[in-house]
Design goal:
The chain is of the alpha/beta class. It has one domain (1-206): Ribonuclease H-like superfamily/Ribonuclease H (Nucleotidyltransferase, domain 5), CATH 3.30.420. The chain has a five-stranded mixed β-sheet with strand order 3-2-1-4-5, sandwiched between helices. It contains seven helices and five strands. A hairpin with an 8-residue loop joins β1 and β2. It has helices at 51-64, 75-81, 83-96, 131-152, 160-163, 169-178, 193-205, and strands spanning 12-18, 27-33, 67-73, 104-108, 119-123.
């Protein structure tokens, strides 16, 4: 059972991001304020849930939350400011969009930049400890997955409907074969040298 709050007397917003380790697409952040003493039998870290569970929870979170917001920072912004800063800036944008102003922020991870005058706490593995962070992780993940499935239609060769932009072997092979798209992060290690050697050897053998 996750915890519903850190400080009982404060309005807390949980914040998390998705897509930090991807080769393509945006980094997506979410901020969620849940009702006080909120509990749920299934809600957890989005990585521990099935796609079906995340989809069902997405609608439930959006309906029950006091406030929620999802923000995207595209690959160009990521290339300009680096992925850590982009992830945190995306969280700031998500908090900016909340209709209710939080008094405290619960941040998944160990790095954050101060946001206005709101106090915060970084929590490693926080999406498996607090409902508000878990809810943010679900929204960030589901919104980003839906976006990747949409741009997959523009570039189906890369399999983003399945890999969501993560560095799978199939994704890297597609980059080697077709090059990069306007959605790829140019500052990331897109080409795996060892895989390129193996890939070329296979073609030579064929």
């Amino acid at each position: 059972m996750l915890k519903s709050h850190l400080y009982r007397n404060l309005i807390e917003a949980g914040c998390d991001e998705a897509g930090r380790g991807c080769l393509a697409g945006p980094v997506t952040a979410a901020a969620v304020i849940l009702p006080r003493n909120f509990k749920h039998p299934v809600l957890n870290d989005s990585k521990k849930l099935t796609a079906r569970q995340r989809s069902q929870l997405k609608d439930e979170i959006m309906n029950v939350a006091i406030a929620w917001k999802v923000a995207f920072l595209d690959n160009n912004a990521i290339d300009e400011m680096n992925i850590l800063r982009a992830s945190i800036v995306a969280m700031h944008h998500a908090v900016d969009g909340l209709e209710t102003i939080p008094q405290f922020l619960l941040i998944d991870g160990n790095r954050f930049f101060p946001y206005k005058d709101i106090k915060y706490k970084t929590i490693i593995g926080g999406d498996g400890l607090y409902y508000s962070i878990a809810a943010a992780s679900v929204l960030a993940k589901t919104f980003r997955d839906e976006y990747m499935e949409k741009i997959h239609l523009e570039f189906p060769e890369y399999g983003w409907n399945k890999n969501k932009g993560y560095p799978t072997l199939a994704h890297r092979k597609s980059i080697l074969k077709y090059g990069i798209t306007p959605y790829h992060r140019k500052t990331f290690h897109l080409f795996d040298t060892q895989m390129k050697i193996d890939f070329d050897f296979v073609h030579f053998e064929l």
